[in-house]
Write a structure and sequence with these properties.
alpha+beta, binds zinc ion, 3 helices, Nucleoside Triphosphate Pyrophosphohydrolase, three-stranded antiparallel β-sheet, 2 domains, Ubiquitin Ligase Nedd4, Chain: W, elongated
C-alpha cells in the first residue's frame, strides 16, 4: 500500500501503528498525534455522448497525438459531480444532461484514483472548447473509429470498451 513516508503537515517521519477499525497498520505522525492515511489524487473522467448516443466526444491535449476523454482533478472540498460539471464547462463549455457513475480505476503513474462517469449533452457544438486547454475536440461516430484514436492499453481504452455497448446502432 502506498502512503506518504512523511507527515504532510509537519514533515516528520511517519511510523506504522495499529488503528482501531483497520485491519492493517496505518502511518502515524507522533508529533501531530494523528494518523496519516494514504494520500493520493482523485480525478474524474467522462465518456461524453450526445443525447441519442450516436456520437462520443474525445479530445487531444497537451500536444499529445492520441485522443483521450474529458478529465480533471477534484479539488479539496469538491464532490465528484461538481468537479465533473466544472471540468465540462471549463474545457468544452458544455453542461451535462445526464450523469451516471460507472467505475473507478487507480493509475499508479500519477498516484490518482480515477472516477469514471458517463455523461450526455444536448449541445453538440464544439465552438466553446477551451483554446488553452484543448488542442482538438472531435465527435466520434463509432466505437471502431474511437478505438483507433486512443492509446492501446490505456485507461481511456478501458473506458471506451466499457461504454462501447452504449453506442446507438
Ligand atoms: Zn505531523
Amino acid at each position: 500500500m502506498i502512503f506518504n513516508a512523511y507527515c504532510h503537515v509537519c514533515g516528520s517521519a511517519l511510523e506504522l501503528r495499529p488503528c482501531e477499525g483497520e485491519s492493517t497498520e496505518i502511518p502515524y505522525c507522533v508529533k501531530c498525534g494523528e494518523y496519516r492515511f494514504a494520500a493520493f489524487n482523485v480525478a474524474v473522467c467522462t465518456a461524453l455522448f450526445n443525447s441519442d448516443y450516436s456520437k462520443l466526444l474525445m479530445m487531444r491535449q497537451y500536444g499529445r497525438e492520441k485522443y483521450n476523454f474529458l478529465a480533471g482533478y477534484i479539488t479539496q472540498g469538491e464532490d465528484a459531480e461538481t468537479a465533473l460539471k466544472r471540468e465540462m464547462l471549463e474545457e468544452m463549455g458544455m453542461y451535462p444532461e445526464k450523469i451516471e457513475y460507472l467505475y473507478s480505476a487507480y493509475f499508479q503513474k500519477s498516484n490518482t484514483l480515477m472516477l469514471n462517469f458517463l455523461t450526455t449533452v444536448k449541445t453538440e457544438s464544439l465552438e466553446q472548447a477551451s483554446k488553452s486547454e484543448v488542442d482538438d475536440a472531435q465527435w466520434f461516430n463509432s466505437f471502431e473509429q474511437a478505438y483507433e484514436a486512443v492509446i492501446k492499453g490505456s485507461l481511456a481504452e478501458r473506458l471506451l470498451k466499457y461504454v462501447a455497448p452504449r453506442f446507438a446502432r
